[in-house]
């Protein structure tokens, strides 16, 4: 494809994308296709001779769209949001054009340097302590990971390297294998599955601790577990504090967990994957009181801050534990400026990395802090609006406190009734929700996901929820 054709194709595609997104609420949110739907729609082999781009574009509507779940439809309320904005899409085009692999500073200095500064901008927007920021001149700094799962794993591996070094000094008779075999990490039983996975991938024990009746992990629970493990000869070394759990958006008590971690020398990692975006609004920062006690902090601008996937922001007070733990230094990756700027390959698991800071830069500049705050406030407001509708109908109950853009609710009655209910809602295909279960109570989660969502859209979703409830309750359909 030559530049002239690229310009025509690109312009047509931009038109298609804008019209797809602006009219997205007209589409059925969940597709009706069956597994295997796609193969018969395209040839068995790649074409010998090039197709025309116009034909490819036409096939998007015929082949792809019938099998798309429309995550940016205001009728999509499942999981948590994934971000989507025009500035981020345009930045990804530029990133695709530059197409550098910024594993070291010299591999593309702008790629590293913009990331360092953007992570400082973002850290200041959240009100993170200076110790986490590169501009402080200390050790701290930020990095863009692909996902929150990677951030948790990377933090755990840094903590493991630190605990190994410390224990070797304190107990020189112990071998590395003995030390690692005795390490133990902690998280709430309601932390994301990626936390348990980080323990498995990192080859360490991960204890799931019971949160309190409000689904928050408490300091005394952590301290009791640490004391038990110390008595058993184990080495507590790492804890994850979730701010905004996946099931119900509960906030572990960071103000209590932080001091316990500091007292017993545990690395404290904060997983604020979804809710972290809300800290751009000062009025929500009370939920991260005690953040100064943490060693690492992570949230996903690609969830709720209008930066398209993938952009998971992670800050570390002392990245040297990662840099030293993962330092493999072949000649072909060395450069003369080594040590004067971060070489982000040491801060992550893969070697290769895209120019992701561009989309952060474009989004922060083209929205401005004010509009990002307005976006968060509007979505939380819409969640409270939905909550008020549910509370007015005494067939329903709200099961968790609504703090962010997630409402957890259920029909009063059995789990079986609610299981049949959500199946019916999703089967009708107008809106899409996913359920969760805490302490054996099955409930429905309605997340405000699309940036296009307006009050009228919530009315449509509520009407659908009520009508399906009428069907199932009046006709005994469960
Ligand atoms: N942590 C929490 C609290 C989450 O809610 C999620 C996903 O929703 C994750 C971690 C995993 O995020 P990622 O897909 O970026 O790994």
TrEMBL record:
A GO CC term attached to the entry: cytoplasm
> Which InterPro entries does the entry mention?
Aromatic_deC, PyrdxlP-dep_de-COase, PyrdxlP-dep_Trfase, PyrdxlP-dep_Trfase_major, PyrdxlP-dep_Trfase_small, Pyridoxal-P_BS
Q: Which cofactor does it need?
A: pyridoxal 5'-phosphate
Q: Domain of life here?
A: Eukaryota
Keywords recorded for this protein, A-Z: Catecholamine biosynthesis, Decarboxylase, Lyase, Pyridoxal phosphate
Instruction: Give the quaternary structure.
Output: Homodimer.
Family to which this protein belongs: Belongs to the group II decarboxylase family.
What is this protein called in UniProt? Aromatic-L-amino-acid decarboxylase
What is the species of this protein? Answer: Callosobruchus maculatus (Southern cowpea weevil)
């Amino acid at each position: 494809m030559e530049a002239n054709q690229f310009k025509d194709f690109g312009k047509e595609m931009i038109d298609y994308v804008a019209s797809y997104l602006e009219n997205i609420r007209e589409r059925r949110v969940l597709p009706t296709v069956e597994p295997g739907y796609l193969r018969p729609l395209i040839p068995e082999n790649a074409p010998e001779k090039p197709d025309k781009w116009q034909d490819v574009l036409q096939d998007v509507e015929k082949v792809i769209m019938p099998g798309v779940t429309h995550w940016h439809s205001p009728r999509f309320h499942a999981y948590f949001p994934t971000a989507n904005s025009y500035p981020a899409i345009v930045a990804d085009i530029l990133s695709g054009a530059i197409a550098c692999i910024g594993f070291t500073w010299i591999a593309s200095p702008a790629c590293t340097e913009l990331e360092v500064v953007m992570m400082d901008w973002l850290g200041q927007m959240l009100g993170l302590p200076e110790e986490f920021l590169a501009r402080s001149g200390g050790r701290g700094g930020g990095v863009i990971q692909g996902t929150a799962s990677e951030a948790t794993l990377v933090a755990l591996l840094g903590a493991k390297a630190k605990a190994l070094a410390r224990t070797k000094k304190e107990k020189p008779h112990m071998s590395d294998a003995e030390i690692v075999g005795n390490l133990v990490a902690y998280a709430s039983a309601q932390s994301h599955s990626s936390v348990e996975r980080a323990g498995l991938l990192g080859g360490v024990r991960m204890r799931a601790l019971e949160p309190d009746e409000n689904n928050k992990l408490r300091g005394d629970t952590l301290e009791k577990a640490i004391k038990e493990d110390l008595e058993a000869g184990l080495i507590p070394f790492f804890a994850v504090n979730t701010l905004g759990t996946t099931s119900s958006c509960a906030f572990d008590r960071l103000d209590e967990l932080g001091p316990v971690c500091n007292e017993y020398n545990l690395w404290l990692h904060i997983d604020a994957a979804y809710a972290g975006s809300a800290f751009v609004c000062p009025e929500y920062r009370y939920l991260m009181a005690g953040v100064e006690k943490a060693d690492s902090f992570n949230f996903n601008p690609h969830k709720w801050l209008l930066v398209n996937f993938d952009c998971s922001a992670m800050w570390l007070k002392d990245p040297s534990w990662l840099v030293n733990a993962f330092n493999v230094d072949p000649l072909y990756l060395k450069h003369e400026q080594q040590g004067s700027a971060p070489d982000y390959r040491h801060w992550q698991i893969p070697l290769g990395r895209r120019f992701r800071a561009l989309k952060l830069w474009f989004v922060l500049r083209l929205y401005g802090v004010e509009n990002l705050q307005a976006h968060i406030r509007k979505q939380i407001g819409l969640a409270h609006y939905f909550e008020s509708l549910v509370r007015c109908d005494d067939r329903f109950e709200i099961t968790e406190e609504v703090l962010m853009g997630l409402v957890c609710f259920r029909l009063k009655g059995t789990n079986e009734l609610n299981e049949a209910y959500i199946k019916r809602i999703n089967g009708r295909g107008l809106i899409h929700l996913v359920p969760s279960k805490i302490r054996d109570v099955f409930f429905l989660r309605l997340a405000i996901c699309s940036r296009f969502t307006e009050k009228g859209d919530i009315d449509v979703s509520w009407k659908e929820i009520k009508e399906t409830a009428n069907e199932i309750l009046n006709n005994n359909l469960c």
